[in-house]
Amino acid sequence: MKTLRLVLGDQLSRDLPSLTDLDPDKDLVLMAEVMSEVTYVKHHKRKIAYLFSAMRHFAKSLGDDGIAVRFRRLDDVDNAGSLAGEVAAAIAAFGPDQIVVTAPGEYRLADEMAGWQARFGLAVDIRADSRFLCSLGDFAEWAEGRKSLRMEFFYRDLRRRYQVLMEGDEPIGGKWNYDADNRQPPKAGLAVPPPSSFAPDAITAEVLALVEARCADHFGQLAGFDFAVTRDQALHVLDQFIAERLPLFGTYQDAMIEGEPWMYHSHIGLYLNAGLLSPIEVIRAAEAAYHRGDSPLNAVEGFIRQILGWREFVRGLYWLKMPAYAEANFLQATRPLPDFFWTGNTDMNCLAQSIQQTDALSYAHHIQRLMVLGNFALLAGLSPQAVNEWFLVVYVDAYEWVVMPNVSGMALFADGGYLASKPYAAGGAYINRMSNYCKNCRYKVTEKSGEDACPFNYLYWGFLDRHREKLGNNPRLGMIYRTFDKMAPEKQAGANSDASRFLAGLDKAG
Ligand code: DLZ
Ligand code: SF4
Predict the structure, then answer these.
(1) pTM (predicted TM-score)
(2) How many other CB atoms are there within 10 angstroms of residue 114's CB atom?
(3) Quick one: pLDDT at residue 148?
(4) Cβ of 16 less than 6 Å from ligand 1
(5) From CA 201, how far away is CA 222, in angstroms rounded?
(6) Fold of the domain built from segment(s) 136-193+245-316
């Protein structure tokens, strides 16, 4: 049987289900750079360059092993412009008996592929993506009958199933979660180790020129591109993280320092999500560092929870709830994205720093995403669809399966509490505690009202008061609402009018 095997840009794994039974004498692998994937949202230039270069290196490694690859470049004159168009062209050129593909990570493409068999008049075998640790079937079974989903219990089940940081049935150290020891504010004078860096080779240089030429009007910078683009390089990033950053990962997990975009984070999400690293190898590498005595349990457990717990959890939830999840808007937020999300041109220094860094690197860490950008979007009532699209565009690790639960469920409470037990709303004090951004800000984080007050402070109260009907009964917000109710009426009115003034200013500025 002659088989055409389509490999997508985020499926760069040699153990991909659609490659395991490949017959090098008969089969053809198809990989295609296409404008439809580049522009269904207009991805950050660095993200496109990373994926194209990683795709080209992956195709080369297949070819070096004697596998026939049809690689379609974006600037091939007869490039069809879409994945379906490239599949049709490959069928015409190669005449396969069937098509094999691993299920795509995004609903829009899965939905399209479901129609390919009829469209091409050929058997299309869409195989479950086995590169995750919890299958979609197992997730659906776990979620069955639950009104809301909480990651913690899901995570414990996976710890048991994969025997990660376990002593028999018990978690190592006696506790499942060591976050009480994590999340310290940044200390002055921290010597954050420099991140891994790879000078572009000839393949990457060619891709950078292509992206510069074809995607000139996309958001983001290419200068200084130094991401890993092969599995070997990605493994090097992982090793360097385990050796140099993991020991302090937990302690400074939530800390933000101006001019230190990378902190003690791992920066491997882009490699995991495109298939250059596998979650289980990353988990085992961190676990081994604990057993060797190289990293403390609070760091290792916190890191593993992100991958074994959170990553698997959001992916399961996405597929369980799509396509309805894309429409979720519990708080009926409709404000368009302010322009400064694309320029970084705002007086709010925490936002400016996070956005400018995102523009330059296509990267920001979890707390910048959730508690600065996400928190602002929540408090300002920005449309969940617009915010989802922005996150999908700007981050190199972003695919809809991971963005949507994090944005709609976690940051914006758009699913009404299915994923999170309360909205992650915070005033300026939180950002001031976890960062040094406020020192260089035109606003004063300690002021609660008036022109110079930190906008997060009054937006916070304005948000809670505006949504009292929907959030007032949330037990986790009870104390906060009581604090507001005890405030003098003029203070309450002041917060609301400051918030209205600020939001009207946003609307005017566009
Ligand atoms: C993100 C992306 C981009 C920018 N370009 C391509 C491409 O040209 N060809 C391709 O096969 N995949 C690309 N991708 C990744 C896909 O968008 C991704 O496979 C789907 O969104 C499913 O997760
Ligand atoms: Fe952000 Fe407010 Fe601090 Fe300025 S004062 S950096 S707006 S938290």
Answers:
(1) 0.97
(2) 11
(3) 83
(4) no
(5) 14
(6) 1.25.40
